[in-house]
Structures are given as structure tokens and as C-alpha cells.
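Saturday, quiet lab. Running sequence design on the C-alpha cells for the scaffold JK sent over.
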């Protein structure tokens, strides 16, 4: 059969990994695809010493790749929103299939890109965009197709999990571990995307669309990062039998779909509590299959390349299939035209348990006043501990609550912070038992 001709744009961490995996495993990949997958052209600002570019047609103009009549598939690995969007739209206009690892692009511009691709009848594949090498998109979109998905929760940022793991286990400083994650090629070009939860929210947006059949709505995701987690909270969580992980959570309720990314206390014995370093894991609950877990490297050159090349194999197999008979981009047919899909819920309406830490003046009646405020908001307390005074006259109070509405918790925290007995702000970390697992 005719080879599939690939143009790779961007030769950084993932671009070089993709180049090398495709080259090294060319024979194995050709046997799987039933035809060779060949690198016809590379678009890169500069060569990369990791890649042997002898005999490769290299251009400094990535748009030349998008317009090259000898290219069947453009692989977009430059990252970012705007140029990547232009590049992919240009490739689609020229009838090319597209493979991308760019979650920012798919989460923010995906609805537009899929419309354009459907009009041209071309594939846009993006397995590498969520959880790097873990084939979670394929699993959700195809393997779990029989199920009504109930919820999914995952560690979906490798850099963030790497930082949390090494800070906790080695007592190292945040900035020091972040620099290491950057040097290993895990971090985004703007690492605030990793540490402030934006990258995880991009990925969760994509997972939720595929799980629940809703259009991509990144702007509705609640996003909170790991930069404010303190060693003290890690220690308190540990004493209570929990570990703090940065989770993306999406859940179907009677009212709509939750879409939230935030640090979360989870019981130490849960599988997700034991996912460390750059590893990612996503737990998916289906009504028929029950809980399933997907685990592996969430970032890095060759793990991510593994997903990019798997998408190229899918393109090679599906290239001759009419667009109407291919798997839909987001797993459900006609998401765009279907206004029956559930809404994304505002954060105020979610229901979860909470860990609270506050500093109070050590005088009679303080605990009663704290408990009264919580009770008036309908928040019931599971455990309350008053610690030894650490800061002058101030004592830390740690509270675990039962499940309650976020709006009630917001009001309770507002009132607690306005008490004369309470110093500074109240730390709030959500608690999930993931108890169907
Ligand atoms: N690094 C990782 O572990 C993972 C990265 N991704 C995604 O893969 C994509 C690429 O990420 P990395 O390889 O880590 O980034 P990178 O910064 O290492 O590589 C990007 C490359 O694209 C080149 N580039 C950017 N704009 C260009 C232009 N206009 N013309 C020519 N070259 C251009 C840059 O010079 C750079 O070499 C991003 O969308 C990222 O979010 C996804 C999963 C994992
Ligand atoms: N920066 C991302 C890369 C993979 O998506 C991460 O750390 O997870
Ligand atoms: Na993946």
C-alpha cells in the first residue's frame, strides 16, 4: 500500500520524541498499519541534536508543511493557542489530517477545529493531549462506549504531581523541583499552566466532553492550582489518613456536569493516592463496567510520542474510510447541534466534604463560635482538632466536614474570617473519598 506521508511541525521535546519513535520502530509500525508511515517533512525553527535529520526535508516555515501537497498528515507539536490554531486550520483547508498533542488548542479552539475538519472530511486526533502516553482518550471514546459514565477523577498534570511528590518525600522547595521538572521536559513553556491548574483544566475539559457528550467549555472549568499548598497541610492531611493530590474531577449529577480542578485530600489507601512523580492516573466510573483505572507516564518525550504515533496509526487505518463512518472527534455524534446536553455546573453548586485549617485566639468560647457558624450554614462536622499553640497566642484548628454545598461553605468561611477570634484567612481543601472504587 501507499505510504502515509507525515509532516512534523515543532521539534522540541515531543517533536523529537515523535521523530525518533517513528524512525526507530518504522518496521513494526508499518506491519501494524499495513503500510509505511514516513516522515516527509519537518517544520522547525532549528534542528534538534536528538534527531538525525539526514535525508529529511526540513523547512523553517511550518506553514509550508500545511500547504505541502506531498503531506497527508500534519503533526502539530509547536504548542500554544494562536499560531497552532492558524496552522491546523490551514492544514485542514488543504485537506490534511491532523495529529496534535496540544490540549490548550483542543480545549479552547476544539469546537471550531472539529467543525472545520468535519466539513473537509479529515481526522483530528489528540490522544497525546491528555495524560501523555496513557491511552485514556481511546479508552473513554471507544473502550467504554457502552457505558453511561458517572464520574471521572484523575491526576492529569505530570509536572504538578512531580512537584508534590518530591516536596513531600524529600522536603525540597517548590521552585527547586519545578526547575527539575522543566529540565526533564515535563513542564509547559509557561509553567504557571502546570502549577495553577490551567493545563489540568484543559485536559479535564477534553475528558468531560468525551465522557458526557458536552461541547468543549474550558471557560466554565473551575481551576485552582498547587501553589498555595503548605507543608503544614500536607502534614495535617497525613495525620488524618489522607494525601493531598491535584485532581481533575468531572461528575454527572441530576442538575448537570461538574468540571473542577483543585488540590484534594484523598484517603491514603486509594489507588490514586499512590500515583507519584510524573505518573498520571485517571479513574473512570461507568455504570456497566464499574471503576476502571488508567495509569502511566503523563509527560516526557517518548511517552508522549507513544500517543502521537498511535494516533498516526489510527489515521493510517482510517484514511480511506468515509468521514461519516469514523469515530466522532469527541465520541458522540452531533454534539455541536445537540442542545440536549447537560449544563456545566457552577462551582457554588457542587457538593463535597472539606478540610479547613484556621488560626484562632486561644480563649473560651472560640470553638463554640466556630461550630455555630458551620451549623448555621448546615455544615456538619466530622472531626475537629485544636492543636498546640504555634504562633504566640494563636492555635491552629483543623476541621473535617461532612459533604455540603460549596455555596454554604463559601458563606461559612466568609463569616469565620470575619470573627475577631480568627486570624488571617481560612485554608480550605476539598476532600473526596472516591468511595465507589
Ligand atoms: N512535554 C510534554 O511532556 C508534553 C507536551 N505536550 C504538548 O506538546 C506540545 C509540544 O510541547 P513540547 O514538545 O514540550 O514543547 P517544546 O517547547 O519542547 O517544543 C515546541 C517546539 O516548537 C517550536 N516552535 C514553536 N513555534 C514554532 C513556529 N512558529 N515555527 C517553528 N517551530 C516552532 C519551538 O521552537 C520548540 O522547539 C505542547 O502543546 C504541549 O502542551 C503534551 C503532552 C506532554
Ligand atoms: N506539562 C504537562 C505535559 C503533559 O501534558 C504535564 O506536566 O502534565
Ligand atoms: Na493520552
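Result came back. Writing it out in full:
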Amino acid at each position: 500500500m501507499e505510504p502515509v506521508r507525515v509532516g512534523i511541525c515543532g521539534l522540541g521535546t515531543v517533536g523529537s520524541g515523535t521523530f525518533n519513535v517513528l524512525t526507530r520502530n518504522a518496521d513494526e509500525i508499518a506491519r501494524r498499519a499495513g503500510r509505511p508511515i514516513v516522515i516527509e517533512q519537518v517544520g522547525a525553527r532549528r534542528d534538534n541534536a536528538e534527531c538525525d535529520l539526514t535525508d529529511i526535508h526540513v523547512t523553517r516555515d511550518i506553514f509550508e508543511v500545511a500547504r505541502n501537497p506531498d503531506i497527508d498528515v500534519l503533526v502539530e507539536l509547536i504548542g500554544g493557542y494562536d499560531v497552532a490554531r492558524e496552522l491546523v486550520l490551514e492544514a485542514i483547508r488543504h485537506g490534511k489530517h491532523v495529529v496534535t498533542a496540544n490540549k490548550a488548542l483542543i480545549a479552547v479552539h476544539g469546537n471550531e477545529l472539529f467543525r472545520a475538519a468535519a466539513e473537509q472530511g479529515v481526522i483530528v486526533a489528540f490522544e497525546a493531549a491528555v495524560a501523555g502516553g496513557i491511552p485514556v482518550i481511546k479508552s473513554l471514546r471507544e473502550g467504554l462506549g457502552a457505558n453511561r459514565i458517572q464520574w471521572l477523577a484523575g491526576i492529569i498534570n505530570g509536572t504538578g504531581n512531580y512537584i508534590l511528590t518530591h516536596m513531600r518525600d524529600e522536603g525540597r522547595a517548590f521552585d527547586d523541583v519545578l526547575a527539575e521538572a522543566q529540565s526533564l521536559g515535563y513542564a509547559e513553556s509557561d509553567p504557571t499552566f502546570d502549577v495553577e491548574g490551567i493545563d489540568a483544566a484543559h485536559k479535564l475539559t477534553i475528558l468531560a466532553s468525551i465522557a458526557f457528550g458536552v461541547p468543549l467549555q474550558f471557560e466554565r472549568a473551575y481551576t485552582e492550582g498547587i501553589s498555595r499548598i503548605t507543608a503544614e497541610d500536607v502534614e495535617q492531611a497525613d495525620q488524618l489518613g489522607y494525601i493531598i493530590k491535584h485532581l481533575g474531577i468531572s461528575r454527572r449529577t441530576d442538575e448537570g456536569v461538574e468540571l473542577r480542578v483543585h488540590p484534594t485530600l484523598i484517603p491514603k489507601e486509594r489507588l490514586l493516592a499512590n500515583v507519584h512523580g510524573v505518573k498520571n492516573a485517571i479513574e473512570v466510573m461507568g455504570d456497566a463496567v464499574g471503576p476502571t483505572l488508567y495509569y502511566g507516564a503523563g509527560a516526557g518525550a517518548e511517552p508522549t510520542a507513544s500517543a502521537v504515533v498511535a494516533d498516526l496509526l489510527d489515521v493510517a487505518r482510517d484514511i480511506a474510510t468515509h468521514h461519516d463512518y469514523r469515530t466522532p472527534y469527541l465520541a458522540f455524534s452531533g454534539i455541536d447541534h445537540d442542545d440536549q446536553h447537560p449544563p456545566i455546573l457552577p462551582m457554588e453548586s457542587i457538593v463535597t466534604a472539606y478540610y479547613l485549617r484556621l488560626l484562632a485566639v486561644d480563649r473560651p468560647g472560640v470553638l463554640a463560635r466556630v461550630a455555630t457558624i458551620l451549623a448555621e450554614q448546615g455544615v456538619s462536622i466530622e472531626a475537629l482538632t485544636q492543636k498546640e499553640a504555634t504562633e504566640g497566642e494563636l492555635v491552629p484548628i483543623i476541621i473535617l466536614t461532612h459533604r455540603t454545598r460549596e455555596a454554604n461553605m463559601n458563606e461559612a468561611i466568609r463569616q469565620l474570617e470575619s470573627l475577631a477570634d480568627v486570624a488571617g484567612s481560612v485554608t480550605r481543601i476539598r476532600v473526596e473519598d472516591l468511595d465507589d472504587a
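Notes for JK: Residues 127-128, 130-132, 134-137, 307 surround sodium ion (ligand 3) (CB under 6 Å). Residues 4-133+301-325 form a domain with the Rossmann fold fold (CATH 3.40.50.720). Ask whether to fix the surface positions before the next round.
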